[in-house]
């Protein structure tokens, strides 16, 4: 799993993003969790991952888009060897095949979690502009349905869209903040839409002011 | 590379070392005696500050030991980190990304390279003239006109404060003062000691007997008692250090006073910016002090004025 590379890559990511980590009503714990965050930059999962303490980080696997991270040897090395990412197909437009594909993705994620791994997911599905949070895709709901006992931790990533915005190659070294919020769970009988809205709210609330 | 063990530098750093030992001892005694929780918090912060001072003094000593190159590298790094803290607070827009990249990776390093090569003519106009016209031009090319003037002005101000003004400190190496050749490090150390001691003494006087606030809306911690006591004692200290400088004792007193007053102005202006942005500190890099910019805010104003006065009165 390339575990011996972890510390260095973490240091590097923290240096570039100057990240400050805040835990609000939530403690870093070595237990199985699903971290879900807003998505504005390619740096997101690296920074979120490096914001976790080392022993917690070792269990966390980011979920990333296959089409982007499988391109080129460097990206593939980073994704698979350094971050132990779970690469999945991006969901195409709604159709019967898409439904089946989505189910396979969820299967793969549940399998990747196994008995001890945590996941880092970005439920918006695609990078936003850094303004309003987009609506959440239903993947996180299905994950929570399959593993209801796992804690869902909302995370807000601030400023990464300014450090490396969508469409730019070169980063600008501004400072960012990662805020972890109070863990939540899927309530029994909770409808899908209500849960997704509640999860989105949980991330929005971590925004300062 | 030849290491610089100028006896004056060694004496001055010996003095700094002595002060740190005294400060750490007082801090340790205070921690034993503090009973109230509020007092304990102040003393904890004081001790954190002292610990950070040990580290900062060591880094600064190391940079002076290696001569002009070390000072340029140290202040270049400080500028870079200060700019980072400043631009994080200042709201820029998506279209400014490339301009910011130029600011960080071309203009600031070039500015320090010119200081390193002692090219005063170009260094002194790179940011005030060339970067001044370049920044808004590059932003206009990016095409976003929303709050254009405000964004351009904020980036220009950041370059002036964090890069240009700070770089006047290592630029002291490029002054050719007759009878004082090759002792830029001494002058830089003098500036930094007087400026930072002025900050420290204003803090100490303010904590001991501060009552009347100078600008309560800007900085609740700045009092007339702290200001007058701090500036007077730091000026006295600077006067007593005349032997490090090319100045006579009276000239040294005048220069120290200017450094203290400018330092106070820098601190006040940076406080106003922080207050406007709704934060207490620019960052959290230095324990007890806040960010880099919180520590060097007084240098930002003191260094250019001190440099220009010295250049005008003491170089041919």
Task: Briefly characterize the structure.
The complex is a heterodimer of chains A (209) and B (316). Chain A has 209 residues and is of the alpha/beta class.
Account of the 3D structure:
The complex is a heterodimer of chains A (about 210) and B (about 325). Chain A is α/β, with parallel strands linked by helices and about 210 residues long. In chain A, about 40% of the residues lie in helices and about 15% in strands. Chain A has helices at about 5-15, 45-50, 55, 65-70, 75-80, 95-115, 140-145, 160-165, 190-205; strands at about 20-25, 35, 60-65, 85-90, 120, 150-160, 175-180. In chain A, strands 1-7-6-2-5-3-4 form a 7-stranded mixed β-sheet, sandwiched between helices. In chain A, α1 (about 5-15) packs across α2. Chain A starts with 5 loop residues before the first helix and ends with a helix. Chain B is mainly alpha-helical and about 325 residues long. Chain B is built from 10 helices and no strands. Chain B has a domain at about 70-175. The longest helix of chain B is centred in the N-terminal third of the chain and has 29 residues, at about 35-65. Classes of the chains: A alpha/beta (about 210), B mainly alpha (about 325). The interface of A and B includes residues 161, 165 and 175 of A.
User: Mind describing the biggest β-sheet of chain A?
Assistant: 7 strands, mixed
Could you tell me which chain pair has the largest interface and how many residues each side has?
A-B, 15 and 15 residues
Sketch the topology of chain B as an H/E string, one letter per element: HHHHHHHHHH
Mean pLDDT of chain B: 92
Number of strands of chain B: 0
Distance between the amino and carboxyl termini of chain B: 29 Å
Q: Which geometry of chain A do the CA atoms define?
A: globular
Element order of chain A: H for helix, E for strand: HEEHHEHHEHEHEHEH
Measured distance between first and last alpha carbons of chain A: 40 Å
Class derived from helix and strand content of chain A = alpha/beta
Shape call of chain B: globular
Note the total helix count of chain B.
10
Q: In terms of per-residue confidence, which ranges of chain A show pLDDT below 50 for 5 or more consecutive residues?
A: 1-5
Number of strands of chain A: 7
- What is the chains' assembly state? heterodimer
Average pLDDT over all residues of chain A = 85
Strand content of chain B: under 5%
